[in-house]
């Protein structure tokens, strides 16, 4: 029985289809049906992001008549920060906005192609994002971008997804330990 909406199903399918297309395009294997149908290769990289310092940034306001408006504005700004970071990652890999699987509460998940140079691209992106956060927010608010968890189609199936999810949690926890290091 389906337990998600058709919209969410199609959106997630588009994310993985686009990622597969970019993966095989870069590998030069778009016409190779054997390579495309191979479900054991780790063609996906599940990248998580975590916005830190949300509470302190939101509620570090002087109380006055405009406090409610300022709170809404800061809340919008925090959402825009995470959205902007996801767009940077998407543009870097030539993906659509649908490659963002989730974005809520300062956390997001993006699926990107796991090619040979993906790790280098992630290092550059992480450094650029962290530098911007240091310059703008002086470390009060920070966005940690994980290294990513390589995944194959088979590791995303229901019976194996638990271990993949645990690896994603550990990956973002590791990213939190090196907060703003790349930018510094």
Structural notes for this entry:
There is one protein chain. The chain contains six helices and five strands. The mean pLDDT is about 90. Helix 4 (about 65-95) packs antiparallel against helix 5. By secondary structure, it is α+β, with helices and mostly antiparallel strands. A hairpin with a 2-residue loop joins strand 2 (about 100-105) and strand 3 (about 105-115). It is globular. It has helices at about 5-25, 35, 55-60, 65-95, 120-135, 160-175; strands at about 45-50, 100-105, 105-115, 140-145, 150. Strands 1, 2, 3, 4 and 5 form a five-stranded antiparallel β-sheet that branches.
Topology:
Blueprint: H1 6-27, H2 33-37, E1 44-52, H3 54-59, H4 67-93, E2 100-104, E3 107-113, H5 118-137, E4 142-145, E5 149-151, H6 161-177
Helix pairs in contact: 4-5
Provide a quick synopsis of the model.
With 184 residues, this protein is α+β, with helices and mostly antiparallel strands. The chain is 53% helix and 15% strand.
Separation, N- and C-terminal Cα atoms: 49 Å
Give the tally of β-strands. 5
Low-confidence stretches: none
Largest beta-sheet characterization: 5 strands, antiparallel
Number of helices in the DSSP assignment: 6
Mean pLDDT: 88
Helix content: 40-55%
């Amino acid at each position: 029985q389906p337990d998600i909406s058709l919209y969410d199903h199609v959106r997630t399918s588009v994310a993985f289809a686009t990622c597969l297309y970019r993966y095989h395009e870069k590998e030069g294997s778009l016409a190779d049906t054997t390579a495309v149908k191979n479900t054991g290769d780790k063609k996906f990289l599940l990248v998580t992001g975590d916005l830190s310092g949300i509470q302190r940034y939101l509620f570090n306001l002087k109380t006055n008549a405009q406090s409610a408006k300022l709170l809404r504005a800061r809340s919008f700004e925090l959402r825009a920060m995470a959205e902007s970071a996801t767009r940077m990652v998407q543009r870097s890999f030539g993906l659509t906005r649908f490659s963002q699987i989730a974005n809520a509460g300062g956390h997001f998940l993006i699926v990107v192609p796991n090619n040979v140079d993906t790790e280098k691209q992630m290092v550059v992106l992480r450094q650029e994002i962290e530098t911007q956060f240091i310059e703008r927010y002086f470390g009060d608010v920070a966005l940690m971008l994980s290294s990513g968890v390589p995944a194959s189609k088979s590791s995303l199936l229901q019976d194996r997804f638990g271990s993949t999810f645990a690896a994603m949690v550990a990956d973002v926890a590791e990213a939190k330990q090196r907060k703003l290091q790349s930018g510094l």
